[in-house]
Amino acid sequence: MQTIAFYCDANSIEANALHQLQEYAQRPYINTICAFTDIHYCTEKALPVGVAFHTNDYVYPLITGKDVGCGVMYLKINKAHWLKPFDKAAHYKAFCLAHTQMTDDGLGGGNHFLSIEEDADSVYIICHTGTRNRGIALYQQCLELTRQYALESGSQGEVMHRDFLDPAFIRYYDDTLSFGYQRRKNFCLKSMIFLQMAGYLRCDKNSIDRQYMQQDYSLTAATGQLYGTPYSLEDSIHNHLRFTPDGIMHRKGSTELSPGKTVVIPLSMSRGSLLVQIRDEYSAAQALYSCAHGAGRKLSRYNAMKHWKTVLKEKQRRSYKQQFSELLDKSGNFPQGYVQEFDFAYKDATDILQHQPYLRIVTHTTPVVTVKYTEI
To answer: Nearest-CA neighbor of 124 among 251, 263, 21, 19?
Structure first.
């Protein structure tokens, strides 16, 4: 069994996730395997979420599940261009409707989201989503390739030699990851245009294409001005394979890092996000240039609902309803998907830096408004 590098409290990992991790570490060809603070059990596949590992010549293409290419992008706007606080009563429902038109297949399920967040100096548009139907198609192709390899090689399991994957497949895989990036960029830029049209940002409103929801902004520069508003964006990915001459990096729910790059670690819907960079490159390399992709769940979705109904006092529930009144349904209740993303369901953010000291905080954002998962 390969030695597991724990960038988390190994004693706090749920037993079924730890068993999954230990079992996977016994598989052949794995050089190094790391577990991060948001590690948790995965019912779909043998590897838990919150893990990264490296191989030389063999590939485990099914570790990501169907959410291939999932990641988080942020778009940053200096508050010098921000004109007024977001008016939830006036624009939350319009923002919810608008986001369904930004791409052709929605944010996706689970904890995917589109949010507006802020710190003292800037406003951030943050999008967590993946490749949706293209990712599912890629996963199905990977599944078929593992079956073909098993038949031709006489091997068993979900591994194949990288030479079995022709260059066209590698290009197709990388193109699918790029597609996820393009989707996140369209969500972020179109959200910014929505804010421009609604009068929240200094801009040249007359120059905005009124059909902007139908336009493709995926080739727009990562830094610059759009309709007169300066912005910058950065993207990170946490569910993918990365093919290099030195081997294959496998990440399942672990964020890819690189020197000088800022990545988002969402904490919870009510606690905002951490933006972090590498502090110590040597230590980051030991961690496979990877880190947690979130705070990590403290309560399962089922237990989060149980906690909401039986543990929280009425005063505490009322406080959430005041903070997120725009999310209440006609009966004055939250949909389950939102309750499951409140802070009590997630681990304390201090664990992230305690167990991943190679990171430094760039900023900690505060949530302004959040749109949760959607299916179109």
So the answer is: 263
